[in-house]
Design a protein that fits this description.
heterodimer; A: about 190 residues; alpha+beta; 4-stranded mixed beta sheet; about 25% helix; elongated; B: about 350 residues; 7-stranded antiparallel beta sheet; 5-stranded antiparallel beta sheet; 2 helices; 19 strands
Chain lengths: ~190, ~350
């Protein structure tokens, strides 16, 4: 009976050891990988948490972010939109072939921004006003509805590497002083 | 019955009078048009360099395309307006630039294709010039005002819009019918007579300053041609023959509006431009003037025109219009005709050269 109990205890001990070994290895691996893949983004010396909001591009001035990443990182910009703040616009290469779009249809807006990578981070600025950003993103002319306006946190700036990503939310200040219109929106040669 | 005949006669009479008036008015219109455009055509022709493209009895020299085809670019203007948010119009200094939205060729420099510049001190008006085709590409024109940061954009595409009708060099005389030369013994102009019908046929094609017409502008040969001006004329010799003897020889001059429809015609057939000459008015050349009594008139030569050194003949301005779509496209060509007798003999001044040393 005692011998039988010893066998059971031995089996349980082996199983526990295996479990402990597996969990330990996992924890060690996770710790190492997390350290290697981590992205720390900071602005003006303060570290930003994932999902930080409230950034504003003023007068097309670039915002500079510092990035601490063990791996190469990239930046992309996505539309951050809900049903409440979605807006519509028209897209087309000529006035006879305009299609209705919504901001929520756009997806990626990266081409509408100028992103410059530096030794310790990156700078980012919209290429122009909201219409221009949407033109660059859609590779076509965009006509905004009169009611379309920039709203808070409408751009999601995603800083990412192979394993992790951090999102920051921003908007842009509209030109409050002046509006320019051209007598034509399309020229064809 | 008599009443019916009277009515028919009256209707016919009215019809004949109407047609006659219409024909006369039409002819007068043409004459007026030609007269009015003499100087205009002269000026245009004098500015052009003519090329001889065919010679056979009639010398035809054809001028290059109208002015629009010689441009190295096509230009369009664009105007910006600035308003402040309180609604008042502002007059800031606008800055303009172009950039690729989609570049069709990797590394292509946008300003090799399209440029934008203000040609006056007024920066609100810019001239956009396209030098090369960029089919498949898109260019963005940006107008901005600093430091306000306001901007507006215009999308520039290349559709290959045809801006003129090209008349290619692949033309030829079609169905040349030399006819029987009218020869009268003892006349010094006998070798100059080449009666017959000539059809100059020209191939037409839509073209633009870049040479790349967009595929959507299908050329379906829907052309029209009208004579829009000209000057000069021809000389004909009128005479009667009695028992083989020429009598009452007279020179007659015909201006081009006398000749239009009789001596020459311009028309479009199957998409080709045809200029037809009939040097042998049939009403006068019935029979053989060497032996047959009658009254004759033969084409003699083009009317020398001392006012214009370019040619001793006549010049036609012909406008060809393509009607296939939109507002159409039109081009005006200048055709200058003169007469040159064919070389029939080469003579040497000595048939034998003897060397003694």
């Amino acid at each position: 009976m005692k011998k039988k109990n010893n066998v059971v205890i031995t089996v349980i001990s082996v199983i526990l050891c295996i479990i402990l070994l597996a969990v330990g290895s996992g924890l060690i691996y996770r710790l190492v990988v997390d350290t290697a893949a981590s992205i720390d983004v900071s602005y003006d010396g303060a570290t930003l948490y994932d999902g930080a909001k409230g950034f504003v591009f003023h007068n097309n001035n670039a915002i500079e972010f510092t990035v601490d990443s063990q791996k190469d990182f990239k930046v992309k910009v996505l539309a951050n939109v809900t049903d409440d703040n979605d807006f519509s616009f028209k897209v087309g290469d000529n006035e006879k072939a305009l299609k209705d779009y919504k901001y929520s249809d756009v997806g990626e807006l990266t081409d509408g921004f100028v992103i410059e990578y530096t030794d310790d981070g990156f700078t980012i600025v919209p290429s122009g006003n909201l219409q221009y950003v949407l033109i660059k993103a859609n590779k076509s002319m965009v006509l905004l509805d009169a009611a379309a306006e920039c709203y808070d946190d409408m751009f999601e700036i995603v800083i990412y590497n192979e394993l992790k990503s951090v999102s920051i939310f921003a908007t842009m200040e509209s030109s409050k002083n002046m509006n320019i219109t051209l007598d034509t929106t399309w020229l064809e040669f | 019955m008599k009443k019916i005949l009277k009515i028919i006669s009256l209707v016919l009479l009215i019809g004949i009078v109407g047609v006659s008036i219409f024909a006369l008015v039409g002819c007068e219109d043409f004459k007026k048009k030609v007269d009015e455009t003499v100087d205009e055509v002269k000026d245009a022709v004098n500015d052009l360099e003519f090329n001889v493209v065919e010679e056979r009895g009639i010398n035809l020299v054809i001028a290059p395309m109208n002015a629009s085809s010689t441009d190295e670019y096509e230009a369009k203007t664009i105007t910006a307006t600035a308003t402040k948010f309180d609604g008042t119009v502002a007059t800031p200094t606008f800055t303009w630039h172009v950039e690729w939205l989609e570049c069709p060729i990797e590394g292509a420099v946008v300003t090799d294709y399209v440029t934008v510049e203000c040609e006056t001190d007024d920066t609100s008006v810019a001239t956009v010039k396209c030098y090369k085709g960029f089919a498949g590409g898109k260019i963005l024109l940006v107008c901005s005002v600093e430091p306000e940061g306001a901007s507006a954009t215009c999308l520039i595409t290349y559709g290959g819009f045809p801006d003129h009708i090209d008349l290619t060099a692949e033309f030829h005389m079609q169905n040349y019918e030399p006819g029987d030369n009218v020869r009268i013994e003892g006349r010094d102009w006998e070798d100059n007579l080449h009666n017959g019908k000539y059809y100059f046929e020209f191939t037409l094609a839509l073209d633009n300053y870049i040479g790349k017409v967009g595929s959507e502008y299908v050329d379906d040969d829907n052309y029209e041609a009208i004579i829009t001006g000209g000057y000069g004329g021809i000389v004909a010799k009128e005479y009667t023959v009695v028992d083989g003897i020429v009598n009452d020889e007279q020179l007659k001059e015909y201006s081009i509006y006398d000749l239009w429809g009789e001596f020459f015609d311009v028309r479009i057939e199957d998409g080709y431009l045809l200029i037809c000459f009939d040097l042998n008015p049939t009403e006068y050349l019935m029979g053989n003037p060497d032996t047959t009594n009658g009254k004759y008139e033969v084409f003699y030569g083009f009317l020398p025109d001392d006012r214009y050194e370019l040619t001793n003949g006549f010049t036609l301005a012909i406008t060809v219009e393509y009607l296939g779509w939109g507002d159409g496209v039109e081009s005006t060509y200048y055709f200058s005709f003169d007469y040159s007798g064919l070389v029939s003999e080469v003579a040497l001044d000595n048939q034998e050269l003897v060397f003694t040393k």
